[in-house]
Amino acid sequence: MQEARLALALERAEALVADAAPVYLHCMAGFERSPLLAVGLTARLRGIDMLAALAWVRRCHPMAMPIYSHLVLLEGILSNKAGTKAIRGD
Fold first, then answer.
1. How far is CA 16 from CA 22, 49, 66, in A?
2. Torsion of CA 88, 13, 5, 69, to 10 degrees
3. Mean pLDDT across 34-60
4. CB of 13 closer than 8 Å to CB of 23
5. Which of 17, 27, 37, 81 has most Cβ atoms within 10 angstroms of its Cβ?
6. CB–CB of 27/33 below 8 Å?
7. Using 50, 70 and 90 to split pLDDT, how confident is the model at 82?
8. Per-residue confidence (pLDDT) for residue 26, from 0 to 100
9. Confidence class of residue 84 from pLDDT cuts 50, 70 and 90?
10. What are the CA-CA distances from residue 8 to residues 4, 47, 59, 77 (Å)?
11. How sure is the predictor about 86, in pLDDT bands with cuts at 50, 70 and 90?
12. Strand, helix or coil for residue 65
């Protein structure tokens, strides 16, 4: 998985939720990629950390098993976004 693609998917999904919630997320099996995106959206929209968001997604979808290396990428994206907002200030 490429970090840029994950960041873009998260950005687009967040815009869709803001524009026309609810949004349905699904990948081929619904175990790794779509739950990963759900974790990112949950963290951003609820203002919680990634592990709390992962726990919330797993309560809703117990079969969610995002790949660890993808979670590491997501954590970087989430923390970078927070830092970007603070730096820009525009």
1. 8, 21, 22
2. 100
3. 96
4. yes
5. 37
6. yes
7. low
8. 86
9. very low
10. 6, 19, 26, 10
11. very low
12. coil
Question: In this structure, what token pair is assigned to residue 33?
Answer: 């990629």
Place of tokens 């990112």: 40
The span from the CA of 11 to the CA of 85, in Å, is 14
CB proximity list for 78: less than 8 A, separation 6 or greater: 40, 43, 44, 50
The H-or-E segment that residue 71 falls in is helix 68-88
Reported residue count of the chain is 90
Domain ranges, ordered by start, for the chain: 3-77
Beta carbons of 34 and 27 less than 8 angstroms apart: yes
Residue written as token pair 């989430």? 78
